[in-house]
């Protein structure tokens, strides 16, 4: 597009830069580039609620649906103070490439509300969740757009979403969202799917590099759902977790942490702070701590031009979306000593098992956890092999290999269907 767009900000600029590099690699025409990159539709809504003190608060909400060429759109909904339309659009774009890479019949979507959920009571959180879904009802559906949890939301929020949509439909529609509690139509394995997938692919990277997990170390930046599950799963492989962080503190101990003990502390207190005061370090130094595996599992753009040259890891397993900026990618590629498992591959476990949940809800036929995990690892292993194979064959980075596979599949589908009318 030669004219300004509504999609602005550093996160969307990052997604656009990544896409432009892959578009050059695939030799896409200008017409194809605009059609592939820019979202099909975007919604901005206001969500007024009654606070517990009787006042009325109004929150801004968003939903972006990138493309519906392969099927309904799919993507999480985050509640965070810094949510804006540009960030949501970038996450929807990345979700499109992620779904296509994994072979899922989805386009990408993303939604969010600009709010700190920790500042809300449980009643306020439920009211805001239900109001947001109520505003989205004209634009979503099991065959149009299927929501899932993301930063600041969980399976309880998804249950409220599902119940709200179902009340307006006059029947239970479990397939409108994924990431629900099992008691409300969820699937075994969904809660831990992203983190288990990150650890699984980190294991594949260790195999590729000839690293023995029992002698390996890892640093996990971000100890939310994805980071904590990744840390626990890596520890089960024998990896020593020497660094962890959340929004409250960063901790480092070369001897390693007992992740199960830390998980109990976090369940009791809600944060890492207070676990080991003597191990506290500056959070900014955590990504450059010496380790074999670095797992950025928090927010976007934490590895940038300012710290990429100082990284002291052999593998980056991207649990978060967009943790590495294009400038950092260039530095890492020039270094040539770090194996990157890019985000659209590494954290795809969540959307893959969400797809399984959607399929099970549609069929009203559910699988046990062993079946879910077997199918998940089959898809991850296939995608890993395709990405590494293309990277080696074309002499490109793993990120560009993964993105080019996803973009090419969406491009082919759009070309086959044509342009209507």
UniProtKB/TrEMBL annotation:
Location of the Glutamate/phenylalanine/leucine/valine/L-tryptophan dehydrogenase C-terminal domain: 187-418
CDD domains xrefs: NAD_bind_1_Glu_DH (cd01076)
Coiled-coil stretches: none
GO molecular function, one term: nucleotide binding
InterPro entries: Aminoacid_DH-like_N_sf, Glu/Leu/Phe/Val/Trp_DH, Glu/Leu/Phe/Val/Trp_DH_C, Glu/Leu/Phe/Val/Trp_DH_dimer, Glu/Leu/Phe/Val_DH_AS, Glu_DH, NAD(P)-bd_dom_sf, NAD_bind_Glu_DH
Keyword vocabulary terms for this entry: NAD, Nucleotide-binding, Oxidoreductase
Active site: 110 (proton donor)
Marked site (Important for catalysis) residue numbers: 150
Chain residues that bind NAD(+): 194, 225
UniProt-listed GO biological process terms: L-glutamate catabolic process
UniProt entry tagged with the keyword Cell membrane: no
SUPFAM superfamilies: Aminoacid dehydrogenase-like, N-terminal domain, NAD(P)-binding Rossmann-fold domains
Chain positions recorded as substrate binding sites: 74, 98, 354
Pfam families: ELFV_dehydrog, ELFV_dehydrog_N
Family: Belongs to the Glu/Leu/Phe/Val dehydrogenases family.
Protein name according to UniProt: Glutamate dehydrogenase
Annotated organism of origin: Bradyrhizobium stylosanthis
């Amino acid at each position: 597009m030669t004219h300004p767009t509504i999609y602005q900000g550093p996160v969307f600029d990052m997604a656009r830069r990544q896409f432009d590099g892959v578009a050059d690699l695939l030799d896409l025409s200008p017409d194809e580039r605009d059609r592939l990159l820019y979202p099909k539709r975007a919604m901005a809504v206001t969500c007024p609620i009654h606070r517990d003190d009787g006042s009325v608060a109004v929150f801004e909400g968003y939903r972006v649906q990138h493309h519906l060429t392969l099927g309904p759109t799919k993507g999480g909904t985050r509640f965070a103070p810094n949510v804006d339309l540009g960030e949501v659009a970038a996450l929807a774009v990345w979700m499109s490439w992620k779904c296509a890479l994994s072979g899922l019949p989805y386009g990408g979507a993303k939604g969010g509300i600009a709010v700190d959920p920790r500042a809300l009571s449980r009643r306020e959180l439920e009211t805001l969740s239900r109001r947001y879904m109520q505003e989205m009802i004209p634009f979503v559906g099991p065959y149009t757009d299927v929501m899932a949890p993301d930063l600041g939301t969980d399976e309880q929020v998804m249950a409220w979403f599902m119940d709200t949509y179902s009340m307006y439909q006059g029947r239970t529609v479990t397939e409108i969202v994924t990431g629900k509690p099992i008691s409300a139509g969820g699937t075994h394995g969904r809660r831990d799917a992203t983190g288990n997938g990150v650890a699984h692919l980190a294991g594949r990277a260790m195999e590729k590099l000839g690293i023995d997990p029992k002698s390996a170390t890892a640093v996990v930046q971000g100890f939310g759902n994805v980071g904590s599950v990744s840390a626990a799963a890596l520890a089960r492989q024998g990896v020593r977790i020497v660094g962890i962080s959340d929004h409250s503190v960063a901790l480092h101990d070369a001897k390693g942490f007992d992740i199960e003990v830390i998980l109990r502390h976090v369940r009791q207190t809600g944060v890492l702070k207070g676990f080991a005061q003597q191990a506290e370090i500056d959070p900014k130094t955590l990504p450059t701590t010496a380790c074999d595996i670095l797992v950025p599992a928090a927010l976007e753009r934490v590895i940038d031009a300012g710290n990429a040259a100082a990284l002291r890891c052999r593998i980056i397993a991207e649990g978060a979306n967009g943790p590495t900026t294009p400038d950092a990618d260039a530095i890492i590629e020039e270094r040539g000593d770090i194996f990157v498992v890019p985000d659209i591959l590494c954290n795809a476990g969540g959307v893959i098992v969400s797809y399984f949940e959607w399929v099970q809800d549609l069929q009203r036929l559910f699988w046990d956890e062993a079946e879910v995990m077997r199918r998940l690892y089959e898809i991850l292993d296939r995608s890993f092999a395709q990405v590494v194979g293309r990277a080696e064959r074309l002499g490109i980075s793993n990120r560009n290999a993964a993105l080019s596979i996803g973009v090419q599949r969406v491009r082919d589908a759009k070309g086959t269907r044509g342009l209507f009318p």
